[in-house]
Design goal:
Elements lengths: L2 H11 L9 H5 L7 E12 L1 H6 L2 E7 L22 E5 L5 E6 L2 E8 L1 E4 L1 E6 L4 E5 L2 E4 L7 E4 L5 E13 L4 E11 L1 H6 L9 E13 L34 E14 L9 E12 L27 E2 L18 E9 L5 E6 L2 E3 L18 E2 L4 E4 L1 H4 L5 E2 L4 E2 L4 E2 L28 E4 L12 E9 L10 E11 L2 E12 L2 H5 L7 E11 L2 E13 L2 E10 L4 E5 L6 E6 L1 E7 L6 E7 L10 E3 L4 E5 L10 E9 L3 E10 L8 E8 L2 H5 L6
Antiparallel strand pairs: 1-3, 1-4, 1-13, 2-7, 3-6, 4-5, 6-9, 7-8, 9-10, 10-11, 11-12, 12-13, 14-15, 15-21, 15-25, 16-20, 17-18, 17-19, 17-26, 19-22, 23-24, 26-27, 27-28, 29-30, 30-31, 31-38, 32-33, 34-37, 34-39, 35-38, 36-37, 39-40
Length: 668
């Protein structure tokens, strides 16, 4: 039966919802409230780079369906995986699962079997027949699947599922999930360090053949009165609901590589995160949303607002009359042995499109496109690396979290629909890319590394608990790069993290925030004693979400013409202070776009060339060496776009002349 015929048969069977009598289903002990599903399609988008890293190649693909084959979510305005290998799922046996509050809630037993698949060849000449593979519930985690080959062994497992029950609960849609190498496969391939490496993005669309209990959401439709940001709280005079989205967890995987040869190489590497978020838990009393994170872990908003989570181009919805959804960015940083910090990698913008609403408070799981109180969700590595969801930071007004979809990557002709759903590129555009030389322990001896990830939600009252950092070490082993030893999750900005664990030679430090209507920026400084009367000043200017936007039109078809940040950074330079060295880093390897440096006019001044302003989500490093000690001073940031305020002053530490100390001025 081809997939077109299959779709007709499935449609005819929807009203009947037959019971399953296949041997595999009957052998499993299934409670009467269990759900069953069979048939449909499974799609896999393989990472050949990560497969090759394991020493595995695809020798043959069998019974692959055409890209335009029918799927069970056709016509439902639902996300579908693009550029995947598509296979049909057999109508023999079934997979059992449970549902709760209108959502999938874990697998119980049984399996789904593909028709077709891959023959995988290992470097030792052996093979794995991943043809007619089974998707079987994992024995230890009901939210995972094992991918079982013809020999009955689970060489891969599937986690980080993004799921929804659709079409009146008649289709279980797993829109995306990470398929990863098991420890057994990594060991067999000779790369035990790559256990858990993501191998494929997986989509499963399967027909529900039996509905059990738990298929109803907390409420029918959106509750009234609404709990959007700014809505009044019933019975609490003067209180309103406020948006406050938290980062909950981060882990990082390599997603692509090109021409990698190791610490002495100059190839490219792509990293992407699993990023788990959680909405504020408060309902009149302040309780920690993210325990163990101090003040940042508890929201100051006593009443949690809903967060809109509508897929791009899905329609115009309350409360903003558009397709509002959060955005996600991620970055990598290197703290050099001399104490300076550089941002060595920046992602594009990930458009969020669905929330699985896990762990919600009672009554808060009612819509897969609204994040309710206490609800959490995860965007996985392949999900974050999906070309159909990645655009450019230049399209976003970050302080207001507005997307200029008119003339955007996905709507280049401003017609209000997605006419470029799968942009063509080389797999490195809009990703977070680093050069091997930037993460090499031989090129950068003594360096340490950090990775951050940040959700941007509209009207979020505290951006600092929506971002977090982890530490790790880029490691070359067995012909592969990994971000090893990931640990030390902490909410807050990277410059806050940079102020911790200062080396003994640091004699002064300061981290100051600029907070204005156009956004937030931090100016951080470390002053290091080099000995012999010399001091190095490392200024890290982190533009979090400042942009002076130039726009046309209005939402939902807003056009962001420009969203530039700053094009000049300067600090007053007292007479008599000489500078022996200076350094600038924007984190790339292109010296042609570096900012110029000057000490004329009584200032230390760095000025951007055309096209390299310090834009939102970016950190630049400015360093000088001098014999002058630090004292309280002021820095100045100039927006690249003219406006009502020409410059902004931010307090910092600055070198001072010996003449000042002769007049009894002291260190701060």
């Amino acid at each position: 039966m081809n997939i077109k015929t299959l779709s007709v048969a499935l449609a005819l069977s929807l009203s009947v919802l037959p019971c399953v009598h296949a041997s595999e289903a009957t052998q499993s002990t299934v409670a009467s409230n269990a759900w069953s599903a069979w048939g449909g399609t499974v799609g896999l988008r393989l990472s050949e780079t990560n497969l090759h890293g394991l020493g595995i190649r695809v020798e043959r693909v069998q019974d692959r369906l055409a890209q335009d084959s029918a799927r069970l979510t056709d016509g439902l305005n639902a996300r579908q995986a693009l550029n995947s290998d598509l296979f049909s799922l057999r109508e023999s046996g079934s997979i059992e699962f449970r549902a709760s509050r209108g959502s999938f809630d874990g697998f119980l037993g049984g399996s789904l079997q593909s028709r077709g698949g891959y023959l995988l060849r290992l470097n030792d000449g052996s093979s794995i027949a991943l043809v007619d593979f089974r998707l079987r519930p994992n024995k230890t985690n009901p939210m995972w699947l094992d991918v079982v080959s013809g020999d009955g062994k689970a060489w891969f497992y599937v986690d980080k599922l993004m799921y929804e029950l659709v079409n009146d609960n008649r289709v279980l849609a797993i829109y995306t999930a990470d398929m990863r190498a098991t420890p057994a496969l990594a060991q067999r391939a000779g790369h035990p360090e790559l256990a858990g490496v993501p191998i494929a993005d997986l989509e499963v669309l399967t027909q529900v053949t039996r509905q059990g209990v738990g298929g109803t959401h907390d409420v029918n439709g959106i509750p009234s009165p609404s709990h959007w940001h700014g809505d009044p709280v019933s019975g609490q005079s003067g209180s309103t609901y406020q948006a406050d989205l938290f980062m909950q967890d981060i882990s990082v995987s390599r997603m692509n590589a090109q021409n990698n040869t190791g610490p002495n190489g100059s190839g490219r590497v792509v990293f992407a995160p699993n990023s788990t978020l959680r909405n504020n838990v408060n309902n009149g009393t302040a309780v920690a949303t993210i325990p163990g994170q101090g003040a940042l872990g508890t929201s100051t908003a006593l009443y949690a607002a809903w967060i809109p989570w509508y897929s791009k181009f899905s329609g115009n919805f309350a409360p903003y009359g558009n397709d509002q959804h959060p955005f996600l960015i991620w970055n990598m940083y290197r703290i050099n042995a001399d104490g300076g910090i550089e941002q060595i990698g920046r992602s594009g913008v990930k458009h969020a499109w669905l929330t699985t609403n896990q762990g919600c408070a009672s009554g808060e799981n009612f819509d897969s496109h609204i994040l309710g109180r206490s609800c959490s969700d995860t965007y996985s590595t392949f999900n974050n690396d999906a070309n159909q969801d990645l655009s450019f930071r230049s399209e976003i007004i970050p302080a207001t979290n507005q997307w200029g979809r008119c003339h955007s990557l996905f709507d280049p002709n401003c017609i209000g629909s997605n006419t470029n759903s799968f942009p063509s590129d080389d797999g490195f555009v809009r990703r977070m890319v680093v050069n091997e030389s930037q993460i090499s322990n031989t090129v950068n001896p003594g360096a340490t590394y950090l990775f951050d990830s940040w959700y941007l939600a509209r009207q979020d009252i505290n951006i600092y608990n929506s971002m977090a950092t982890i530490t790790g070490t880029p490691t070359w082993s067995g012909g592969n790069w990994t971000f090893a030893g990931q640990a030390n999750f902490k909410l807050g900005s990277i410059t806050d993290r940079w102020m911790e664990n200062l080396p003994p030679a640091t004699i002064a430090n300061q981290n100051t925030e600029l907070s204005v209507a156009e956004g937030h920026t931090k100016v951080a400084v470390r002053v290091v004693n080099l000995g012999n009367g010399q001091y190095r000043y490392h200024y890290a200017v982190h533009n979090l979400d400042f942009a002076r936007a130039v726009t046309a039109g209005a939402e939902p078809n807003l056009d962001v013409l420009s969203n530039k940040g700053f094009d000049r950074f300067r600090i007053a330079l007292p007479a008599g202070v000489s500078i022996t060295e200076n350094r600038f880093s924007d984190g790339d390897l292109n010296a042609g776009n570096d900012w110029t440096f000057s000490t004329t006019g009584g200032y230390l001044t760095w000025t951007a060339p055309a096209g390299n302003s310090l834009d939102w989500g970016s950190l630049y490093l400015f360093s000088i060496t001098t014999s002058a000690l630090p004292a309280a001073g002021t820095s100045e940031l100039r927006p690249a776009t003219a406006g009502l305020q020409a410059t902004f002053d931010v307090s910092t530490l600055a070198p001072v002349s010996d003449i000042i100390f002769a007049h009894d001025f002291e260190l701060p």
